[in-house]
Amino acid sequence: MKAAILVESKKPLVIDDVSLPERLSYGQVHVKLNYTSICGAQINEIDAVKGKDNYLPHLLGHEASGEVLEIGEGVSTIEVGDHVVLHWRPSKGIQSQTPEYKWNNKKVNAGWVTTFNNEAFISENRLTSIPKDFNTKLAPLFGCAVTTAFGVVNNDAQIKVGQSLIVFGLGGVGLNIIQAASMVSANPIIGVDLLENKIEMAKNFGLTHGINSSNLNLEEEIKRILKGNSADVVIETTGLSKVIESAYKNTNKDGKTILVGVPKKGDNISIYSLPLHFNKILKGSEGGQSKPDEDIPRLINLMDNDKMTLDGIITNEFELEDINKALDLFREGSAGRILIKLS
Fold first, then answer.
1. Which residues, in sequence order, are CB contacts of 17 under 8 Å at separation 6+?
2. Tens digit of pLDDT for each residue in 40-83?
3. How far apart are the first and last CA of the chain?
4. What phi-psi label fits residue 169: left (phi over 0), alpha (psi between -120 and 50 degrees) or beta?
5. What total of structural domains would you count in the chain?
6. pLDDT digits over 140-159, tens only?
7. Could you tell me the residue range of the domain that residue 44 belongs to?
8. Is the domain of 11 the same as that of 95?
9. Pairs from 89-93 (Cβ < 8 Å, separation ≥ 24)
């Protein structure tokens, strides 16, 4: 298979041929991948934001679409020929051992799912079957961005009708948080970003008020929109300590601050914690506690019935050979979701 390999932290990925194992292990599924998208988690891995990477060299990626070529012993939820979404959150089925790939006769580490490669051996519980007529370019977004966002709104924040919401960071997850919040009738829905084009895009997903924090006074704008109040729910997606502090500060005394973005190791926050002893909540999210085998079919049903949209969320497409260019563009922050064509 062709793969993008992380050989050294904070360096470009190496594109090369990697050998698949000779046979599938119990609970593994051989998948031909069609498209993958890039998530901030991969940038964090490449840049080693959590500290030293002890698994180099290794493969990357956790949201993709593909087609099943072969199933291993014990697999019961997936069949040959199925179209599937690859996701990092476990769902029904077996959790297999991780595959042992070879590159230049040396082991390349990989988890239960990797997607920066045009084929893979995937753990059954990291796959969910989807209708064969569903758009293979949109399907990768259900591997993380969409399921995480809707999970954050439904499971972590549990937003009620009419509650006010602020979302910091309007990337792929942020945009879908806006959409999910709109669907449960949060109001107002305020989005904060440094880029005007992302604020404009978010208006297509249900944003009622946008704040460009590069040229507006954030605190004053929030108070103006909320008529002197703080927000019932604030969701932070950037992982930047100063933004996390601002998110917490702008949450009302009995509101919820939900942290989706992952901070760099050592990038600590400073908050006034007394409100946490009463009704204020500060909570970290792990993928919105989503259950892919349940959530993906429900979300696709909403798409099929025009109850939600992903129009415009994918702004760029690259070939696997150009993945480092795609990663650089992601780091710039100006793009929506970036797609990598794998086959």
1. 1, 2, 3, 103
2. 999 999 999 888 999 999 999 999 999 999 999 999 999 999 99
3. 11
4. left
5. 2
6. 999 999 999 999 999 999 99
7. 2-138+310-341
8. yes
9. 89/147, 89/287, 89/290, 89/291, 89/292, 90/125, 90/126, 91/125, 91/126, 91/127, 91/128, 91/291, 91/292, 91/293, 91/294, 92/125, 92/293, 93/27, 93/123, 93/124, 93/125, 93/127, 93/293
